[in-house]
UniProtKB/TrEMBL annotation:
Protein name as annotated: Palmitoyltransferase
Superkingdom of the source species: Eukaryota
Entry domain remark: The DHHC domain is required for palmitoyltransferase activity.
Gene name for this UniProt entry: ZDHHC15
Family the UniProt entry places it in: Belongs to the DHHC palmitoyltransferase family.
Organism annotation: Vombatus ursinus
Topology term for the membrane: Multi-pass membrane protein
GO molecular-function terms, A-Z: protein-cysteine S-palmitoyltransferase activity
């Protein structure tokens, strides 16, 4: 009886947690819906008097709005990819691993299994990266998300504002969402500003639209600043071919830690997320190369292009030279 109550309580708590996880998304949706009403009706229809200006404002606005909503939708509802079945332990291996009490033997068992897989990264102490909750050998750049309760390929972070894990399957969409969000806020602020001034100095009548126009500018500027900082940070990560997790903890390879282990140069780093088809770069359509289980590494490319090694040396020297100033700026 007690066990039944505990299971029911646990299930109820999980259900409540899943519902609460949608609150940040609901907040964003409500703000966007209000911004649509405030801009289209209170600003363009009521406040703007010139017909040509109305048409231009509304045409550009709706183009940005469609891409903004489209990329947000894709960021939310594109499910994170899990590792292929071959990375999971077989029932026999799992049973032997769990029954084995000697850590060194367990470590050797994982090494034997990993030899059959395209795995090149290790833990800090040199062991094979193993998830004891999913019972699988983690592919390179794969991490376990405690919120999603699963291992996610090329995991970047879990974002509460989209209630989803950002990783290999939707990182392109997330970057596009940030970019179109910045443009959306910037466009609203730029076109509303002159009417904000007119309301402020009293050139326009004190109507209901005044509140919406004034508040619209403040909200657009506030979101623009915060989104621009986040977008700038992810552009820097993209230029170095890093995830958020790798920026805080450098990946460890067979040869040791290497913070630039996946850095192939700006163009190839960009193509690792957006692909080589330029027609798809602005569209939220999947175009990232590969399957998310293995990635080209700098060490392999250096043998083909020795300039990459020199480039890293120059980058490290530049970072060392500006290190104290950079830290003080942060």
């Amino acid at each position: 009886m007690r066990r039944g109550w505990k299971m029911a309580l646990s299930g109820g708590l999980r259900c409540c947690r899943r519902m609460l996880a949608w609150v940040p998304v609901l907040v964003i949706v409500l703000v966007v819906l209000w911004s649509y009403y405030a801009y289209v009706f209170e600003m363009c229809v009521v406040t703007v008097a010139n017909t040509v200006e109305k048409v231009i404002y509304l045409t550009v606005y709706h183009a940005l709005f469609v891409f903004f909503i489209w990329t947000y939708w894709k960021s939310i509802f594109t499910l994170p990819h899990q590792p292929h079945q071959k990375f999971f332990m077989s029932y026999g291996d799992k049973e032997r691993y769990e029954n084995e009490e000697r850590p060194e033997v367990q470590k050797q068992m994982l090494l034997d299994i990993a030899k059959k897989l395209p795995v090149y990264t290790r833990t800090g102490n040199g062991a094979v990266r193993f998830c004891d909750r999913c019972h699988l050998i983690k592919p390179d750049r794969c991490h376990h998300c405690s919120v999603c309760a699963m291992c996610v390929l090329k995991m970047d972070h879990h974002c509460p504002w989209v209630n989803n894990c950002i990783g290999f399957s939707n990182y392109k969409f997330f970057l596009q969402f940030l970019a179109y969000s910045v443009l959306y806020c910037l466009y609203i602020a730029a076109t509303v500003f002159q009417y904000f001034i007119k309301y402020w100095v009293g050139d326009l009548p004190n109507t209901r639209s005044k509140f919406h126009v004034l508040f619209l500018l403040f909200v657009a500027c506030m979101f623009f600043v915060s989104l621009m900082i986040l977008f700038g940070y992810h552009c820097w990560l993209l230029s170095r071919n890093k995830t958020t997790l790798e920026a805080f903890s450098a990946p460890v390879f067979l040869s040791g830690p290497d913070k630039n282990g996946f850095n192939l140069g700006f163009i190839k780093n960009f193509q690792q997320v957006f692909g080589e088809n330029k027609r798809l770069w602005l569209l939220p359509i999947g175009s990232s190369p590969g399957d998310g289980h293995s990635f080209p590494m700098r060490s392999m490319n250096e043998s083909q292009n020795p300039l990459l090694a020199n480039e890293e040396h120059w980058e490290d020297n530049e970072e060392d030279a500006r290190g104290p100033h950079h830290l003080s700026f942060l």
